[in-house]
Each structure stands twice: as C-alpha cells, then as structure tokens.
Specification:
Residues 399-423 are annotated as: Disordered. By secondary structure, the chain is of the alpha/beta class. 39% of the residues lie in helices and 13% in strands.
Length: 423
C-alpha cells in the first residue's frame, strides 16, 4: 500500500507540474491509473533512463557550478570506464537545459562531423572562460558567465554550431524559453524536430532564445521550414529548473522510452543554481523569482521520488559564491575562477526531504559526483548485458541532408506554403 501511495503521489505531482509549467491542461491526467499492471515494466537488468538537467541562472556561481561539475563527472567517467574519449553524452539518454544550462547541453550533445559530441566538458568550460574574458573581461555579477556573450544567434554561436539543427544531436535534448507570441513556455525538442521541419530549429538560434534577456528585445526565430515562429525571452522565471520538463517528456514518450512508467525507471541528475549577491534592482527580482520556482521544482521532484530520492535523484547545488572570489579584480583571472569552481564542488548543498522540509546534505557536491560516476558506469554495463534496449532512438520521418550544409528556406506568407531546397 505504501508503494502504491508513493506512486500515486509521484504521478499527481508530475501531472500538476506538467499542467502548470508546460502549458498543458488535461484534467484526465490528474487521475492516477487504476493499475500499473497494464503498463509495460522494464525487464530485469534493462537499466534506468538517465536524465541530465541543467538549471539556468544569471550569477557566476550558477554557470561555474554546472560547468565544473560536468567536467569533474566526465573526468571520473573516463577514468572508471578506461576510455579517455568518453563523453557526458555517452552516459545520458536525455539532456534538458535552461539559459546557460541550455548552452552547455547544446555544446555537449550536438553531433560533430565525426558523429561524436562537438565538445568534451573540459573543452566547453575552457571555451566559455576564454570567450568570457575576451568579450566582457571576466565575470559579471549582474549578467553571469553566458548572458553577456550569447545575446544573439550570430557571432560565437554561429562559429560553433553553423547551420546544425535540433536533429543534429547525439541524444534527445530539451531547451525551454518563454514565447511572447503565445504567452506560454516553449520547449525546443529533438523528439519533435525529427518528426517535422516545422519543429526543427537551428541550434545557434535555440541557444540565443533560451539566453534571451527578459528586459531586452525578444529573440525572433523560425523553424527551418519557416512555418513556426517564436518570439523568445529566456525561460528563467518559469522554467529555470527544467527537471520537470525532462521527467514528463520521458514518462509520456513511450516511443523512445517504452519501459519508463515511473520514477523507479529513472536516474535524474539535476545541476542547480547557487546563492547570489543581495538584490539590487528589477532584474534581481526576476532572478529571485526564477530561483524560487527552481527550488519549488526541486522540492516537488524530491517528494515525487520519495524513498528513491537518494538512489534515483541527484541534486548538485551551490549554497553561494565564495566571497573571496567576488572581487571584480580577481574575477578576471581564469585561475581564480577555477579555484572558485572547486570551492563550489566542495560545498554541501541543501536537500529537500519528503514531507520534512530541508537539511544540509551529508556529502559534498564532489562526493556526489564520484558516486554518480560509479552509478552511470554500472548502468552502462547493465545495458550491454541486456538484449532488450532501454531506449529506442527516434529518427526523422522525412530524411534530409545534414543541416551542417546550408539549407535555403523560401516561405510564402500568403499561402503558408514553403519549399526547402537542399544543397
């Protein structure tokens, strides 16, 4: 009975999250299925669906923690697997990222010309540090590591991603923004992109959209066939923590994840944001609101996982940016920035407890990452031994030339028809 009640709670929480944050409104989804026996269960040994969720934030600690944590995790995976070329994307089935987290997800999960991820975590971190120093002279406590760099889809984004689109990722990705045209959150999804060009967007534009400043002009972008238009601002206020987006995507996508029917079938890794400097103005109020929503999602997800919270849900969160590294003069040094990142990994974050509020974690962020690396290696080994796949990749229904080549789109606004010559 206790297990059934926990499953009921999990389903209802995710249904509410889906309804409130993803714009769905289906009252039937709030009713727990009469029996889980009708749903397929993962065969013994098949493994769990591995989800990576990266919060979006404006403060230096937000960007530092996510990049440093992924670098530490990838290094441990290379060591434990004995494969120096191992990448984060090799050990996760889905990646969701908002704001700066969406940029990191794109860097680590976009497919290069050799079919492998474009960047290792360490290379992505070095690139972002170098570009930050070149463009804005180091960190900006008000704008964060990525906001000053990635305001538009041109420049660095264009040099990195070219004409690659959401279809050109090694694994499914989910990157949210807020669409002013519809007045609702919009989630860029590889699963939708492979089914229709109307939902396929260039990755450089997706990154610009999820990082768009709420106080500036919206980022206008269209799908590759020109049929879908989005007027985007960053989804930091309503979707700063994309964990709920990723969970509902997996649990409702039976085509790709046929055996994922509950939290027992998931391994969720959530990289969170840390505390920031005191509020200074309207922009800070927006940031605080976003952090509040992020914490609420964390609490709800922790409750939904229930007794599985310690084995199937890992939250990496900073408690604040080390005061010793907040001096503007020291922020310009990459070595000092790396020291700050290491300090964040040594922190013990605040954890949400089932119906009991919060407490300080017994383990540091670095210790959690080491444990997680072991779990991911075990999951990989389990899948190699099981003949039934845990994940069935979805492929594009209408094949087209790799979007790395130039695609010229001609749209006729009056008729709504479009043609997409492929070169």
């Amino acid at each position: 009975m206790a297990i059934v009640d926990a499953d009921r709670l999990s389903y209802e929480i995710f249904s509410i999250l889906e309804s409130k944050f993803l714009g769905f409104d289906d009252s039937k989804k709030l009713v727990f299925p009469a029996s889980s026996a009708a749903s397929p269960r993962a065969p013994t040994g098949a493994g769990r669906v591995r989800i990576l969720s990266i919060d979006g934030g404006d403060s230096p600690s937000d960007s530092l923690l996510a990049a440093a944590a992924l670098t530490r995790l990838e290094s441990s995976l290379c060591l434990r697997s004995g494969d120096p070329s191992a990448r984060i994307a090799d050990f996760f089935d889905v990646a969701a990222g908002s704001g700066s987290g969406g940029v990191l997800a794109a860097l680590l999960f976009t497919k290069g010309y050799d079919g492998r991820p474009l960047f290792s975590a360490a290379d992505a971190l070095r690139l972002l540090f170098a570009e930050s120093r070149r463009r804005v002279g180091g960190f900006s406590a008000r704008r964060g590591l990525f906001r000053g760099i990635f305001r538009r889809s041109g420049g660095l984004f264009r040099r990195i991603f070219g004409e690659w689109t959401l279809r050109d990722t090694v694994k499914p990705v989910l990157i949210p923004c807020y669409d002013l045209a519809t007045g609702a959150p919009f989630v860029f999804s590889r699963a939708d992109a492979v089914e229709a060009d109307a939902y396929d967007f260039r990755i450089r534009e997706v990154c610009a959209a999820t990082c768009a400043d709420a106080g500036a002009a919206a980022v206008e972008l269209r799908s590759v066939d020109g049929r879908t238009r989005v007027a985007a601002v960053g989804g930091g206020v309503v979707l700063a923590n994309p964990a709920a987006v990723a969970i509902t995507h997996v649990l409702h996508n039976r085509q790709e994840f046929p055996f994922a029917v509950g939290v027992d079938d998931l391994l969720l890794v959530s990289l969170g944001a840390g505390g920031s400097a005191p509020a200074l103005g309207a922009a800070d109020l927006v940031r605080i609101a976003g952090e509040g929503v992020s914490d609420m999602v964390d609490q709800a997800v922790a409750m939904a996982f229930g007794q599985r919270r310690t084995s199937n849900y890992v939250r990496i969160q900073a408690n604040g940016f080390a005061s010793g590294n907040c001096n503007p003069r020291t922020r310009r040094s990459s070595s000092r920035s790396m020291e700050a990142a290491e300090e964040l990994l040594l922190q013990r974050n605040v954890e949400s407890l089932l119906f009991r509020g919060k407490k300080i974690s017994e383990h540091t962020n670095a210790e959690k990452l080491e444990w997680l690396a072991g779990e991911l290696i075990q999951e990989d080994e389990r899948r190699r031994k099981c003949p039934i796949p845990t994940v069935i990749p979805k492929h594009a229904m209408t094949p087209r030339t790799s979007s790395a080549t130039t695609i010229t789109t001609v749209t006729t606004e009056s008729t709504g028809s479009s043609t997409s010559p492929v070169h």
